Amino acid sequence: MSVILSPSLLSANFANLEHDIRLVEQGGADWLHIDVMDGHFVPNITIGVPVVKSVRKITNLVLDVHLMIDNPQNFVQPFAKAGADLITFHYEAVENPEDIISLIHQEGLKAGISIKPNTMPEEIFPYLQDVDLVLVMTVEPGFGGQNFIHDCASKIPIIKENAPNGVIIQVDGGINNVTSKICTSLGANSLVAGSYIFESKNIVEACRLLVK
Ligand code: DX5
Ligand code: ZN
């Protein structure tokens, strides 16, 4: 099973994103993971629509937008218009997951649902038929560079057994050359990694090591 690598731009050099994007392209990245935070759903603020719009102009990588925001439904159209290919929202941030999943699909994008470390995988079973991706957070969302929470990885096989074939299972948080193997052996097939890649001396090689 091939693994989709989605480097998280959060740990890239914001003064020269293009430089870092070219390196992950060389390293074989398939997607670019873009972390959007609002200071409400998580205690941090990061980047928004204009960055996605600019990045869209310089790369053909799939733009994987991870919304860690309240009221994510309000931002589906702006991010779709800016060039996102996939929008993942947090289950904990919405009242009706079906509504935002439909909205994302109406825009012609793939839809992902994400759960924080304290959310049980069973809570999202009703939506597994409708989504394209499930993002299992392996740290509390909000910051790059945190340690992988091993207990979260046990959710991967539970989701895999209950999701239709073809639903991508992505992990995000504390992914490095060791934790990536734990996750893929349990059934994850998309890896998000920020600090492991962008804080490495050799970004190209770090990408290759993750999917090897
Ligand atoms: C954290 C973000 C992650 C973050 C991962 O809330 O969702 O995508 O960039 O960073 P690392 O790989 O450093 O844990
Ligand atoms: Zn993320």
List the helices and strands and how they pair.
Elements: E1 4-7, H1 17-26, E2 31-37, H2 49-58, E3 62-68, H3 76-82, E4 86-90, H4 97-106, E5 110-115, E6 133-137, H5 155-162, E7 168-172, H6 179-186, E8 190-193, H7 195-198, H8 203-211
Parallel strand pairs: 1-8, 2-3, 3-4, 4-5, 5-6, 6-7, 7-8
Helix pairs in contact: 2-3
Bound molecules: D-xylitol-5-phosphate (DX5) and zinc ion.
CATH homology group: Aldolase class I
Beta-strand share of residues: 15-25%
Global mean pLDDT: 98
**Largest sheet, spatial ordering of strands:** 1-8-7-6-5-4-3-2
Q: Judging from the principal axes of the Cα atoms, what is the shape? A: globular
Query: Could you give a short account of the major beta sheet?
Result: 8 strands, parallel
Structural class: alpha/beta
Low-confidence stretches: none
- List the total number of helices: 8
Task: List the bound ligands.
Answer: D-xylitol-5-phosphate, zinc ion
DSSP E strands, number: 8
Describe the structure.
By secondary structure, the chain is of the alpha/beta class. It has a single domain, classed as Aldolase class I (TIM Barrel). The protein is built from eight helices and eight strands. It has helices at 17-26, 49-58, 76-82, 97-106, 155-162, 179-186, 195-198, 203-211; strands spanning 4-7, 31-37, 62-68, 86-90, 110-115, 133-137, 168-172, 190-193. An eight-stranded parallel beta sheet has the order 1-8-7-6-5-4-3-2. α2 (49-58) links the parallel β2 and β3 (62-68). α2 packs parallel to α3. It starts with a strand and ends with a helix. The chain binds D-xylitol-5-phosphate and zinc ion.
